[in-house]
Q: What sequence folds into this?
């Protein structure tokens, strides 16, 4: 028995937001919303690429610090994750990363802006092969486009996830989340 992928309803607001960044004709999306889509970075969002293991720890840290995680993708074939951040961050990312104290020899995540593209799965995907899957699908809040992850909070949590005192989530005796170093 195969695994099924839940169908997500794509709101008109999310559709319009994604269409702004379309790198291909959008009429095929409307006819077949389950198809993957090619989007341009640097128009409605920039994209932070990190390794999948750091992404897992980073999402837990963002949650602990009560920082929202906006749309994010997992790219299993290459062991990476991609987090959508506000457009324009790619121009500031290097300075932001250099302002933090990174562990020696730690891989620093990249931020891609204009001139780069990403293939995303259709929000109404119904199985099949895709280069990526949504870790957090884009959702609109009323008439507003999806809330994107704060670049500052993301950079800080990515750095902390790679630190020499890597944190690990465990459940304490009372069911509370406990951070172990």
A:
């Amino acid at each position: 028995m195969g695994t099924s992928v839940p169908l997500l309803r794509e709101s008109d607001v999310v559709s319009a937001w994604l269409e702004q960044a379309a790198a291909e004709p959008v009429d095929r999306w409307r006819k077949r919303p389950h198809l993957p889509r090619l989007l341009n970075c640097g128009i409605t969002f920039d994209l932070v690429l990190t390794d999948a293991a750091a992404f897992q720890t980073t999402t837990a840290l963002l949650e602990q610090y009560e920082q929202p995680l906006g749309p994010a993708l997992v790219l299993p074939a290459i062991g990476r994750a991609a987090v959508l951040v506000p457009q324009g961050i790619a121009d500031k990312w290097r300075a932001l990363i250099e302002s933090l104290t990174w562990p020696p020899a730690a891989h620093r995540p990249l931020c891609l802006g204009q001139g780069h593209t990403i293939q995303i799965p259709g929000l109404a995907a119904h199985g099949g092969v895709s280069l990526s899957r949504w870790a957090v699908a884009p959702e609109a809040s009323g008439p507003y486009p999806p809330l994107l992850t704060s670049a500052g909070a993301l950079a800080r949590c990515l750095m902390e996830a790679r630190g020499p005192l890597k944190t690990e989530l465990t459940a304490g005796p009372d069911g509370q989340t406990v951070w172990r170093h």
About this structure: The longest helix spans residues 52-64.
